[in-house]
Design a protein that fits this description.
Elements: E1 3-4, E2 7-8, H1 12-36, H2 45-60, H3 67-81, E3 85-86, H4 88-104, H5 118-142, E4 151-152, E5 165-171, E6 177-183, H6 189-210
Parallel strand pairs: 3-4
Antiparallel strand pairs: 1-2, 5-6
Length: 212
């Protein structure tokens, strides 16, 4: 659930704006963070070899899972359990289905070579599809409220407490998904003042309309 420039929504046009503006800002911020904290930009060759082996494994495997079938199962689970209207029981059921697929992902198999091979690409994609699906379900379970486009049918409306919190997703020491609650920084005064002025203007307009 996004709560940012356009509020709590999942509208396509708004998402493109976010991608263009905040994608660039995130990239520049990440680069600056690395430089300012003294991290080395050198990559250990052993790490490269490990990742290369992982990426090529599906092509070398004689038997294994069909990545397209796993993709279909992820899509069906997310459509059924992570749609706009959801509840804790359904979200939990969806999470169990995604975790079951996640266990099978390391055994995907692809035929052919690395050249123009959609099957090999799918064997890579499914790893990230299951990861982001798990993140969506776990954070939706944590946000025990109805807010914006998240219609939790087991809650009546937004929570004042959760309205002050962002959920930050990290990897724990075992490389698994870990969710941290982080308080949202107060809105800068020059921005909050715009909202106050807008409310005042709206009140005047409403007052004018009520006279007729």
């Amino acid at each position: 659930m996004r709560r940012g420039l356009h509020g709590a929504n999942r509208l396509g046009g708004n998402s493109l704006t976010d991608l263009l503006v905040f994608g660039r800002r995130a990239g520049e911020g990440a680069a600056e963070y690395v430089k300012s904290n003294g991290y080395s930009t050198e990559i250990d060759s052993s790490q490269l070899e490990t990742e290369k082996r992982r990426v090529l494994e599906p092509l070398e495997r004689q038997d294994g899972e069909n990545p397209y079938m796993l993709q279909q199962q992820v899509q069906e689970a997310m459509m059924e359990h992570a749609n706009l209207m959801r509840n804790e029981e359904s979200l939990q059921e969806g999470l169990e289905k995604i975790l079951e697929v996640k266990e099978r992902v390391p055994n995907v198999k692809a035929q052919g070579s690395t050249l123009f091979n959609p099957g090999w690409h799918a064997s890579q994609d499914i790893r990230y599809l299951t990861q982001i699906s798990e993140i969506i379900l776990r954070t939706a379970l944590e946000r025990k409220e109805r807010r914006g486009a998240q219609w939790r049918l087991d809650y009546d409306g937004p929570s004042d407490e959760l309205g002050k919190i962002n959920f930050i997703v990290k990897k724990d020491e075992q490389g698994e998904i870990d969710i941290e609650r982080r308080e949202i920084s107060p809105m800068p005064e020059h921005l909050s003042r715009l909202f106050d002025e807008g409310e005042g203007h709206g009140g005047e307009e409403e007052g004018k309309e009520s006279q007729f």
